Amino acid sequence: MLAMTSRALGEGPSTLTRDGDFEKTNAATNSFGGWYFVRQASSEVDARAPRGKRVIRFRNETPGRDAQAQQLIRVDGRVVRGLNVSVWVLGDNIGPGQSSDQTARIKLVFFDEQHQPLGEQWLGPWLGTFPWKHEQGRLDVPPKARMALVFVGLLGGTGQASFDDLQIHPAAENPSVLPGKPLP
Q1: Average pLDDT, whole number, for the chain?
Q2: In this structure, how many other beta carbons lie within 10 angstroms of the beta carbon of residue 41?
Q3: 8 A C-beta contact, residue 68 and residue 151
């Protein structure tokens, strides 16, 4: 069994992502705290950033080309049934890539204990030009999930997309909608 921290199980107020506000990036070295496989992205100061001073900005002109960042999070589907995802996003001429699933979005790909993919879910997609806006949604966690790979960016789409304050929290369950005992 994969050892899980209380943070991964959702027993604390912390988000499951690291550096979701993109403040720990180093513009001089273009390194992003907690994020890897960063492609066609820059850490930029934005006076209108919803949180802090920095945002991550993706630019891509070639449909289908990666413009993204990734981060692995631990999530146990036996304990966490859903994830609340929220982010601030800004778009400038965002278009699709070579297929309809290549657009700006937050995507989570879930994996089991053997690192086999279990499926994916996403928040978005975003197209066009728009000012900073807050987006949020609930994503279901497969019961066999033990981890998820988080993708943020254009994901093959074109244009420019900026992100700030990406948070992923275990969703609270509402016991009134769970199956109960039959009435007498």
Answers
A1: 85
A2: 26
A3: yes
pTM equals 0.83
User: How many Cβ atoms sit within 10 Å of the Cβ of residue 140?
Assistant: 14
Q: Tell me the β-bridge partners of 180.
A: none
Q: Are strands 82-95 and 128-140 parallel, antiparallel or unpaired?
A: antiparallel
Q: Is the dihedral of CA 45, 49, 55, 58 positive or negative?
A: negative
Beta bridge partners of 58: 41, 161
- What is the rounded average pLDDT of the residues 117-127? 95
Token readout for 109 is: 């790909």
Contact 140, 121 (CB under 8 A): yes
Residue 26's Cβ-count burial label (10 Å; 0-12, 13-18, 19+) is exposed
**Each residue's pLDDT tens digit, 129-164:** 999 999 999 999 999 999 999 999 999 999 999 999
Report the Cα–Cα distance between both ends of the chain, in Å, rounded: 40
Q: Where does 13-171 sit in CATH, by number?
A: 2.60.120.260
d(CA 152, CA 161): 10
Rg (alpha carbons) of the chain, rounded to whole number: 17
User: pLDDT by residue (tens digit) across 138-147?
Assistant: 999 999 999 9
Contact status, residue 50 vs residue 165, Cβ threshold 8 Å? yes
Q: Which two tokens stand for residue 114?
A: 């053997």
Phi/psi of residue 6, each to 5°?
A: -60, -30
